[in-house]
Amino acid sequence: MKIQRVTLRDVAREAGVANVTVSNILNNSPLPYNAKTREHVQRVARRLGYRPNTIAQSMRNHHTRLVGMLVADVLGSHVSDIISSSEHALAQAGYQVLLCQSHGNLDSHEQLIQTLLQRNVDGLLIGVIHSSAHNRLYRQIHRLGAPLVLFDSALKGFKDRIPVVESDQLRLTEMAVDHLWERGHRQIRFFAPPLHLTAAEEQRRGFLEAMRRRGVSRPEEYIVPSGYSEESGAQAFDALKTAGKPFTALIAFAFCGYGILDRAKALKLKVPGDFALVTIGGGRESRRMGLIDVDQQPRRIGEKMAEILLELVQPKHQGGPASSLATRAGSVEWREKIAPILMVPTEC
Question: What's the CA gap between 116 and 58, in Å, rounded?
């Protein structure tokens, strides 16, 4: 959603004073403006909903040794392992992490980035929740030279090159299909999340390509629209059962898969007895449940994020030239793909 910002110039025009007057008053300048003028400018700013440009303000020439990190939420081992491994790597280099959660809300995501920048963080690690909604903000941060690393998904239609660290999205679903096919499954269905992330688009493509390689002529028919939550998994599973479509194996992202598992148990269906279930990114939780899991290697993702961010941040602190990585990140698309690992319990 595009947000129309009120500028300092808008406040000045509405208040009938000069831009510099508004700037000085709203920045608590010690210059001797009379109380009536100060009150008038502040009242107009509040009425118009003016917020200072924290991005520009955050680029002052000093360092806090703080790194801002923004995730959708901290549920599950995938995100928690990314956080802990990146936090550990940054701590080794003398940086602390300020962690925020947007809970998947687009407006909160943008507001929290502004908040982190207002704290003058030296760099940002941001989990992408939408591949196009915040491009204007990312572009502004990038062009101001703020060190920024994105993770878990790339951006769509974005010309400025920002480092991205993520799993090899195509391989996640290809690996799951290959494993199931080799074990005799032919009715394999993928519970596909919405396509607002490039990661979801690539995961879907990986599934379709893997099925085509196996001779399935219409693999699109094996896609089950779903989401990432347990509730979406349970609802999509009920819809699949109601439609009477056959299946011997299902592929779903972690919490979606757990929703499927709960519904299967409620229907007295056994996993893996009645059908196989492969989760993606379930990590320790899936392994504790005895499920097959395509591990996205979140600890490696976190370590690589920190490594790239430090290469972008430290030359600026040392007053030296930009690193070769920083130069590369500014001129070409930088996507660090981490190879997933298939984790199979012995009984599967």
Answer: 9
SS3 state at 127 = strand
Query: Do 54 and 5 contact (CB within 8 A), yes or no?
Result: no
- pLDDT number for residue 55: 57
pLDDT score of 25 more than 60: yes
Could you count the other beta carbons within 10 Å of the beta carbon of residue 20?
12
CATH class of 8-52: mainly alpha
Highest mean pLDDT pick, 148-162, 238-252, 307-321: 238-252
Mean pLDDT of the chain: 87
Q: Please state the rounded mean pLDDT for residues 54-82.
A: 79
CA–CA separation, 258 vs 71, rounded Å? Answer: 21
CB 291 within 8 A of CB 271: yes
Q: Rounded to the nearest 10 degrees, how much is the dihedral formed by the CA atoms of 56, 70, 28, 39?
A: 110
Q: Tokens at residue 200, please?
A: 């979801």
**Distance (Å, whole) CA 247 – CA 185:** 9
Considering the chain, what percentage of its residues have pLDDT values greater than 70? 88
In 3D space, the residue among 129, 126, 245 whose CA is nearest the CA of residue 197 turns out to be 129
Q: Which residue has the higher pLDDT, 348 or 17?
A: 17
Mean pLDDT calculated for residue range 15-41: 85
Alpha carbon 319 to chain centroid, angstroms: 31
Six token digits for residue 81: 């392992």
- Rounded Cα distance between 246 and 266, Å, is 19
**Which CATH architecture is the domain 66-166+298-338 placed in?**
3-Layer(aba) Sandwich (3.40)
Q: For the chain, where do the domains classified as CATH 1.10.260.40 start and end? A: 8-52
DSSP 72-119: S---HHHHHHHHHHHHHHHHHTT-EEEEEE-TT-HHHHHHHHHHHHHT
Q: Is the pLDDT at 140 greater than 90, yes or no?
A: no
d(CA 235, CA 86): 35
